[in-house]
Amino acid sequence: MKRFLIPLTLIGAALAVFAYNYQGYCRGRCTLRGFGLFGPFELSMLLLLPLLLLFIGLLKWRRSRRRAASRCSCGAPLAEDWSYCPVCGASRHC
Fold this sequence. Notes:
The protein is mostly helical. The protein has helices at residues 2-26, 40-69.
């Protein structure tokens, strides 16, 4: 379910934008020529999106590095004050 969350969110957002623009077109506030044009709010959102994706990627990368540092190469969890793995005996800093 988790892997479908982002595509479903993007599809939902695209449908919401299309529905909003279609409703504006039907009421005469929007023309076909301006149907795909972006206003200042939309442009700012498009510019912020890559920055937000980069920030989320950095947070995930940091979390994965922390998890890797608290585990041995054999996969056993290590406490902060342990120098050796209790399962395989390998050094923590190897």
